[in-house]
Write a structure and sequence with these properties.
Length: about 270
């Protein structure tokens, strides 16, 4: 019986490892400046944890066989553990997880704590049940003020985010249900939420950040390839969570300027 259990554990281990490794990648093609570093971090983590998984399951199968019931009546001796081994594998586990954290932190911190470049495009993202709204500053380079008492999600656009249309800076603000971005230009993202916590997730950008009511969270990233990319909400935010998605359209700088100008002209 011990040999059969060893065979079952090892077969399951190696089959699952094969199918995991055979899938070339678990995310779409990365199209942001930070994507290569993030993908390398993912790959290293997969390999490191895969080795640990195979070794642990291999040892489990061996120990099941080694200490199988042999059908004799020998007196059973109980082990109270090996302190040295427990300290060793606890220390190795801590080193692995702390090391992975230290390796990944600079990648995340570069988008979170370092300021965006002076020429970065400011874009405000507002999450609400169950839609995303994107706001651009227009020619004045300033966002108009918003007020909670003006929020009316059922109205859409300006009223949905509570824009104070009496504020002069709000006159040329452009609000869209689709996110338009110029390629190879850094985006200074400002994340906010109206009702509950949402999570702005663009898999192709390797970008995910919570939007929290009452907070304005700054992040930045740079799209590197023209195309259409899906936006998802990665935080369970209510019954309609499944339909809270949108699109990012990455276009040339000229096409972006034309789109923005057309939207501003439509407001006149």
């Amino acid at each position: 019986m011990g040999l059969a259990l060893l065979a079952i554990i090892w077969i399951i281990t190696f089959i699952s490892t094969y199918f995991f490794a055979a899938k070339t990648w678990w995310l779409p093609k990365g199209v942001a400046a930070a994507a290569p570093a993030i993908d390398n971090q993912f790959a290293f983590t997969y390999v490191a944890m895969g080795i640990v998984f195979v070794l642990a399951q291999g040892a489990l199968g061996f120990l099941v066989w080694r200490y199988r019931d042999r059908g004799d009546l020998r007196k059973v001796s109980y082990s109270h553990g090996n302190t040295k081994l427990e300290v060793l594998w606890t220390a190795l586990t801590a080193m692995l997880f702390i090391g992975l954290n230290l390796m990944g932190s600079p990648i995340w911190a570069a988008e979170r704590f370092e300021p965006a470049k002076p020429d970065a495009l400011p874009v405000e993202v507002t999450g609400m049940q169950f839609a995303w709204y994107f706001r651009y500053t227009g020619n004045d380079g300033k966002f108009g003020a918003t007020k909670p008492e003006l929020i009316d999600p059922s109205s859409g656009n300006e009223a949905a985010i509570g824009l104070n249309t009496n504020d002069p800076a709000a006159k040329d603000d452009v609000i869209s249900g689709t996110m338009y971005l110029p390629v190879n230009r850094e985006v200074d993202l400002q994340l906010r939420a109206i009702d509950v916590i949402h999570s702005f997730f663009v898999p192709a950008f390797r970008f995910k950040q919570d939007a929290v009511p009452g907070l304005r969270i700054h992040m930045h990233f740079t799209p590197t390839e023209i195309g259409d990319y899906e936006i998802a909400c990665a935080e369970l935010c209510g019954m309609g969570h499944y339909k809270m998605h949108g699109m990012v359209k990455v276009v040339s700088q000229a096409d972006f300027e034309k789109w923005l100008a057309d939207r501003e002209a439509a407001k006149q």
